[in-house]
Amino acid sequence: MRRKLALVLSLLMVAVMVMSACGTSNKPATKGTTLAVNVGPDPDTIDPALNSAVDGGTLILHAFEGLMTIDENGVPVPGQAEKYEVSSDGRVYTFHLRNGLKWSDGKALTANDFIYAWNRAIAPETAADYEYMFDVIEGYDEGKLNVTAPDDKTLVVTLKNPVPYFLELTAFPTYMPVRKDIIEANGEAWATKVETYVGNGPYKVAEWVPGSHITMTKNKDYWNYSKLGADNLKFVLMEDDTAILNAYQKGEILFADNMPNDEIDSWREKPDFHLQGQLGTYYVSFNVKKAPFDNPLVRQAFILAIDREWIVTNIGKAGQVPAGAFVSTGLSDADPSKEFRDVGGDYFDPYDYEGNLAKAKELLAQAGYPDGKGLPTIEYLYNEGSGHQAIGEALQDMWGKLGATVTLTSQEWGTFLNTRKAGDYQVARNGWLSDYNDPISMLDMWISGGGNNDAQWSNAEFDALIAKIKSTQDNAERYKLMHQAEDIIFQDWMLCPIYYYVDIYLQSEKMDGFYASPLGFKYFKFATVK
Amino acid sequence: MGKYVAKRVLTSILTIWLVATITFLLMFLVPGGPFLAEKAPSAATLEALNKRFGLDQPKIVQYKNYMLNLLQGEMGESIKQRGRMVQDIIFSGFKVSARLGGIAILVAVCIGVPIGCIAAFNRGKWLDSLILFFSTLGIAVPGFVVSTVLMVIFSVKLDLLPTYGLTSFAHYIMPVSALAFYPTAYISRLMRSSMLEVLGQDYIRTARAKGLPQFKMIFKHALRNAILPVVTYLGPLLAYTLTGSVVVEKIFTIPGLGNEFISSIINRDYTMIMGTTIFLATLLIIMNMLVDIAYKIIDPRIKFK
Question: Between residues 19 and 78 of chain B, which touch chain A (CB distance below 8 Å)?
Fold first, then answer.
């Protein structure tokens, strides 16, 4: 018997050993200094056209570079383009590429690579989430962008209308050039293998173990090679907040893009802790087609009855800013030195809870529900997650002071999105992050029948304004109209802003030269390790 | 034996087909879809995406296509991880998870069986109580607590072990311990109770009466019968452990398969849901079959029918 048992066990052992042998050994593919950081878990894709995630974008922005790139002040500066000219009507951009630009496999980069990449991104067969990032370019609606290359080093882009943020767009991950020959030979799998993932950026991928890490090394063909920081960048693909913090504390990573909410208080005062405004708003969607939220007075009352300061201090904890409007802080106005939010001001004072609550009670009485009498039971829908639940409980309590009975319903993420999109709710959690530094990114979603118009709201005047904004040539006028559009949102009180998002991260003092853009992309290309 | 195996293989194929069909039906009953996000793609993009992955076709056509591809060993393309094939994702994850899980089970068996026996021989004594204490702890404490506590103590406080990756022996210590914790405890409990049962049987008393040495009596006579429940438990345990643990993989950043089971469902990545489910079902069936064969080797009284 012992012999047989030993046999079974040794068979098991052999099996394990065979499996061990099958595994890839993590050979050190790199030499020199290595900067290990965490910007997120395993990305779904790092194909510039297909990616729509911020962490995926950060990875792409190290392996690729657009015509422009974002500098440490968040401003677009020449990247692959050395210089550019804009026509007097602001519609035609002519970019001149730098001399001697190369792909990471040594092939020359030409203006045609951009034309291919951009048209690929909007092609229906590519089925890219972010294809609408190109809707400012002429020919988008016809499926062929009006982008031409008079020669290998010149790219001429014709826009539908002057777009003040176009240069910024050319630095956005979706606008990166890609290689036609490689993609045609490999299909979408090109962006999943080190050998075929050829870029034109400051770094190139040297090793990729899905679910573990992506290591990039300096690209010696990059035009600004001498300025680059660490020899290698190791993006550790961690997911668990606590594990990320542990690795950071141990010094195994020098940058952590996420941390457990409970730990924020103990890190707030440390030099590692960084807080940056994000272009986005956490808000609550009313279904304006369902009672009692089909009544603007009720919506306004519910908007005013929220203690936003309490929510950000006790639940958010990360320095979020109480919101008194929808377009978030951080987005510039016509005069780029001013913020859209400062020019537009708040639609109510988010810091005056007592005053707001008193007014809310009056409004509710006007709406025919004095002290909440006669209000139907309100169901607040949110997706699973401790933060969302805590906010739901706070709202339950705060709206309770109006006399409303609020029940909480949580749904799993995919189900929640489906329910909310179908308009099968009364009031639900929502959030929106702007794609670029222009308020239109937070306004045009509310046009009648828009794919993200979860409120089911429809306002002809608003629709007309958005159409006008999109065709206006005068920048100052354009911003004036955008303010008007936001005014309409709050004349109708169709959504309930809670706070403006912030991005928190831990950055070790051992690392220098790092910066983040307002869109949340992290730039390590010039970062060095002390 | 040959006839038995052939019969088992046939029923196994039928079971896998049933599992695949039921999963296919249930999967589409879940609300939502793979392309929904906080930012909804435009109607045109959504249409293009559905077309791209064949989701625009009637369900019955999709089912037929999937099954035909499956027969040829093709599990299709992941909807969420664009450009990756489902079988590639499963096998690359399984290699890592199986290695880690295999070591963990080996550890669990090598520790669990002896301490279970020790507990049985010392029934009611302090050693038994001590083992009982630890095995109860092992069964009661969830994996994420074990993992986090290990990491805080050995990585952060004592700075002895690395927090992520699987590149050296030291990297394996914590994830293997976390994975082996529960099965070790469970096996020791199983072993203890079945050993006690066996020790009370007549043939053991006879062996004792004949003056057989304690060691020989245990290993030659008692263990052989007492280990059967452990072997039964090993089948499903192997299947579940080799396919990875979400918790341990997330905490130690291990590129295993465990995470895919959960994330495929959250993402409504239909092809991945099918792939992971069919893979797990197949593995479970194979492991159970191996267990049945191992039974026969250990206990000749068992007949294949």
Answer: 30-33, 35-45, 47-49, 51-52, 77
Residue A387 token pair:
């933060």
Contact A1 B37 (CB under 8 A): no
| Region of residue B198 (phi > 0: left; psi between -120 and 50: alpha; otherwise: beta) | alpha
Instruction: Name the B residues in 179-238 with CB < 8 Å from any A CB.
Output: 219-220, 223-224, 227
Angle (CA) A136 A129 A159, round 5°: 10
A7's CB contacts (< 8 A; 6+ apart) are: none
- Segments of A393-526 assigned E as strands: 406-411, 427-433, 495-507, 511-512, 515-516, 522-523
Share of chain A above pLDDT 70, in %: 94
A19 pLDDT higher than 70: no
What is the spatial distance between Cα B259 and Cα B146, in angstroms, rounded to a whole number? Answer: 18
Rounded CA-CA distance B49/B58 in Å is 15
Q: What percentage of chain B exceeds 70 in pLDDT?
A: 99
The reply to whether B296 touches chain A by the CB within 8 Å rule is no
Contact residues for B58 (Cβ-Cβ < 8 A; gap 6+): none
Q: Which amino acid is at A251?
A: G
Provide, as residue numbers in chain A, all residues whose Cβ is less than 8 Å from the Cβ of B77. Answer: 188
pLDDT in tens, A218-237: 999 999 999 999 999 999 99
Compute the mean pLDDT over every residue in chain A, rounded to the nearest whole number: 90
Alpha-carbon distance of B276 to A65, in angstroms, equals 37
Q: Is A277-502 a CATH 3.10.105.10 domain?
A: yes
- Is A62 in contact with A222 (CB distance < 8 Å)? no
The two structure tokens encoding residue B149:
């506590």
- Residue from the list B80, B105, B159 with its beta carbon closest to the beta carbon of A250: B159
Q: What is the mean predicted confidence (pLDDT) over B64-81?
A: 92
Q: Is the pLDDT of residue A26 over 50?
A: no
Mutation target for B interface from A30, A34, A192: give the one with most B CBs within 10 A: A192
What is the per-residue pLDDT for A171?
96
pLDDT at A351: 96
Distance (Å, whole) CA B254 – CA B93 = 9
Sign of CA dihedral A291, A293, A295, A301: positive
B-chain residues within 8 Å CB-CB of A8? 294, 297-298
Interchain CB distance below 8 Å, A26 and B223: no
Write down all domains in chain B, each with its CATH number in brackets. Answer: 92-269 (1.10.3720.10)
A34-55: per-residue pLDDT in tens? 999 999 998 989 999 999 889 9
Average pLDDT for A363-369: 94
Nearest to A163 by CA among A470, A394, A387, A407: A470
Say if CB B174 and CB A257 are below 8 A apart. Answer: no
Q: What is the ipTM of this complex?
A: 0.83
pLDDT of the residue at B136: 92
C-alpha A465/C-alpha A488 separation (Å) is 10
**Closest by Cα among A519, A437, A513, A448 to A479:** A437
Predicted confidence at residue B45, as pLDDT, reads: 83
Token pair 């062929």: residue: A144
User: Which band of pLDDT confidence, cut at 50, 70 and 90, is reported for residue A127?
Assistant: confident
User: What is the model's pLDDT at position B20?
Assistant: 94
The verdict on a CB contact (< 8 Å) between B220 and A1 is: yes
In chain A, what are the domain boundaries?
A: 9-248+508-529, 277-502
Torsion of CA A156, A160, A165, A170, to 10 degrees: -40
Fold of the domain built from segment(s) A9-248+508-529: D-Maltodextrin-Binding Protein; domain 2 (3.40.190)
DSSP B222: I
Separation of alpha carbons B27 and B22, rounded Å: 8
Minimal CA separation from B42 to chain A, in Å: 6
DSSP-derived pairing of the beta strands A378-383 and A406-411: parallel
